[in-house]
Design goal:
four-stranded antiparallel beta sheet; 28% strand; eight-stranded mixed beta sheet; binds manganese (II) ion; globular; 5 helices; 19 strands
């Protein structure tokens, strides 16, 4: 097994492994690499839904698919695996997020115990577009200027649960009229990683968030400034997918976004997620 950094401060490609053969893996070394680099990339993998579930379960407890994303394809057979896809079969989308742009976000920050890790396996990729970028919110906190840091330290951010990262309203929800009363939950704006002890910004995503205790206009202005800082490419790495890639990120530390792609092309990703704990 070889570990090679893919960007200045985040991301590593692990080569010379077949991750479907979990018995052959040095799990302690992989876990350490994941904690050190924030995102791991494995190329040239062949993963069935079952194999992806088994590999993911080496790093924690699998979370069942969110109700709104339960797959319709039989091969999933009720396993804790689902699709991120724009493909429509028998008049139904087989997965979520379609072909649009997904804004910078961390996964499911709107629940009490957001996932520790998310894993994507590329089954089919479009000829272009649909790249996924990751950005390190530890570096973002480190590089935050003192004025902004003083304004956000000790604050809580309210995360809206009704809207997806591509801006769609989830089934069973109404659109958000007022971000202060949107359904969801609040978490500290700065969190400490439970395994590494390092601190990071934890803002969820820009759309429909609110900084508790501020006037709406103040919250909007502060979020705009914070997000402008978080979008600095210095903290980021962009992954251009090939079929057979598996990417696993630390969802406590990293944010990610996805470029849109041609809706007439096909993109099929298998997805798992590991149960997390309450950010503090
Ligand atoms: C996700 C996600 C982006 C992508 O699965 O959580 O944001 O590249 N996916 O499909
Ligand atoms: Mn996501």
């Amino acid at each position: 097994m070889e570990i090679r950094r893919v960007a200045a401060s985040i991301g590593a490609e692990i080569s010379d492994v077949a991750i479907c053969d979990t018995g052959s893996l040095d799990l302690a070394a992989l876990r350490q690499a994941w904690l050190d680099h924030g995102v791991l990339l494995f190329r040239g993998q062949y993963m069935t839904p079952t194999a992806l579930a088994h590999f993911s379960a080496c790093f924690g407890e699998l979370e069942p698919p969110p109700a709104s994303e339960a797959g319709t394809r039989e091969e999933l057979g009720g396993q804790p695996v689902w699709y991120i896809s724009n493909v429509v079969e028998n008049g139904k989308q087989i997965g979520s997020l379609g072909a649009g742009e997904a804004e910078w976000h961390t996964d499911m920050s709107y629940i009490a115990e957001p996932p520790t890790a998310s894993v994507l396996f590329a089954q089919e990729v479009p000829p272009s577009g649909g790249n996924t970028s990751f950005s390190d919110m530890e570096a973002a906190l480190d590089r935050l200027d003192d004025d902004l840091r003083a304004q956000i330290e000790g604050r809580s951010v309210h995360h809206d649960s009704s809207t997806t990262s591509v801006g769609d309203t989830r089934r069973g929800y109404d659109g958000v009229q007022d971000v202060r009363t949107a359904p969801g939950i609040s978490h500290p704006a700065v969190r400490t990683h439970p395994e590494t002890g390092r601190r990071s910004l934890y803002l969820g995503r820009r759309r429909n968030t609110y900084i508790e205790g501020l006037d709406l206009a103040e919250s909007e202005a502060l979020l705009d400034r914070l997000w402008e800082h978080c979008r600095n490419p210095d903290f980021a790495w962009t992954h251009v997918w090939q079929a057979g890639d598996v990417v696993m990120w630390d969802n406590r530390r990293m944010i990610h976004r996805r470029d849109p792609f041609d809706p007439n092309s096909r993109r099929i990703m298998l997805r798992t997620q590991l149960r997390g704990d309450r950010p503090s």
